[in-house]
Specification:
By secondary structure, this protein is of the alpha+beta class. It folds into 2 domains: about 130 residues, Immunoglobulin-like (Sandwich), CATH 2.60.40; about 120 residues, no CATH class. Helix content is about 35%, strand content about 20%. It is built from 9 helices and 11 strands. A 5-stranded antiparallel beta sheet has the order 1-2-4-7-6, with no helix packed on it. The relative contact order is 0.08.
């Protein structure tokens, strides 16, 4: 195991006092399992940092900084460890070029509010190892390629196995027929109805908040999951293909859906504001992050169907005119146009 350690000492300065109280020593440790590799084999590379819980780490985009090295997979994990948190970024690298290569120095941005700083990992040189063993006679010797062996002829399988298979299948078919004729075949159980869209969305929000992604600094992951919950609710509640909509298609659908202006503005603000977080890795302020969840919750409460309430009489029938009056527009949802508008928007 090869370790490369980069330390950056930040002294107390008045302008950085809101971010750094006292003198802190931030240590960045770069590890690679082996400095030699063969063509196409995985190279395990890890970067570890000890940070206060108020400091967020923004790793670099691996698609642009590793050069000829291919990044097959990478993930970031943050774990509470006493006064500081341990941030670990694991990479699985590989190279398809038969030559030595270098893991470059990578920038890791540390951010707390409007203040930021950068730590850099050390360069690590990797040596390519060939899997071809050189001939014993020296560089001028040729490698002897052995010829193919003759095709082996296998004998015919004994017919007794064929008869055994036929007998077993016959017994199995006869047993099924007997069970069917005697009525002992169990009927398939009826699957329970799906959870209504509102209840399913509320449960999904509870699971998302239970993961505590915001406390771990995983803002982008939190926004991704919240956006999927929002799209899935709209898709099930209004019978659309919202899960496949882009932001522009979602806003166009909202404009033709018949929702009131406040709900349309909520959809437009949410998806336009979360796109930079999901795809540009921009971290918004805490007020905006908290508003994401509030907008989704308020939309759910404003569009959930109202349950039909029965009057407290035993076996009393409600007149047809009165039952029609009790069906308010909210019970049918806030839509006033047919679902064909959604197809027109999609086209």
């Amino acid at each position: 195991m090869v370790e490369m350690i980069s330390r950056r000492f930040i002294k107390t300065v008045f302008i950085f006092l809101p971010l750094f109280a006292g003198v802190f020593s931030y240590e960045l440790i770069s590890k690679v399992e082996s400095t030699s590799f063969t063509l196409g084999d995985p190279i395990y590379f890890r970067v570890t940092m000890e940070l206060p819980d108020s400091v967020q780490c923004i790793p670099p985009e691996p698609e642009k900084l590793f050069g000829s090295i291919t990044v097959r997979e990478w993930n970031i994990n943050r774990m509470e460890n006493g006064a500081n948190d341990t941030v670990t970024i694991d990479y699985i690298l590989t190279s398809y070029i038969p030559e030595n290569c270098t893991i470059p120095s990578l920038p890791y941005i540390l951010q707390s509010g409007s203040l930021s700083d950068t730590l850099y990992s050390e360069k690590i040189t990797l040596q390519f190892m060939t899997v071809i063993t050189p001939p014993a006679g020296g560089a001028d010797s040729t490698i002897d390629i052995k010829g193919l062996k003759e095709q082996q002829v296998a004998g015919n399988p004994p017919r007794i196995w064929l008869w055994i298979i036929v007998i077993v299948l016959s017994i199995w078919i006869i047993s099924l027929l007997i069970l069917f004729l005697t009525g002992k075949i169990r009927k398939k159980t009826i699957e329970p109805p799906p959870v209504p869209p509102y209840e399913e969305a509320i449960m999904a929000l509870g699971v998302l908040h239970g993961k505590r992604l915001l406390e771990k600094g995983l803002i982008r992951e939190y926004v991704f999951e919240l956006s999927e919950i929002f799209k899935r609710y709209i898709e099930r509640r209004f019978d659309t293909n919202a899960s496949e909509f882009t932001t522009e298609e979602m806003i166009a659908w909202a404009g033709a859906s018949g929702l009131d202006k406040k709900l349309k503005n909520s959809i437009e603000w949410f998806f336009q504001t979360t796109d930079p977080v999901k795809f540009a890795r921009i971290i918004p302020d805490n007020e905006t992050i908290n508003r994401f969840s509030d907008e989704v919750t308020q939309f759910l409460e404003a569009t959930k169907p109202l349950e039909q309430q029965s009057e407290p009489g035993a076996n009393q029938q409600v007149p047809a005119e009165k039952s029609q009056q009790q069906e308010t527009p909210a019970s049918q949802g806030p839509l006033t146009e047919s679902s064909s508008n959604v197809n027109e928007v999609r086209q």
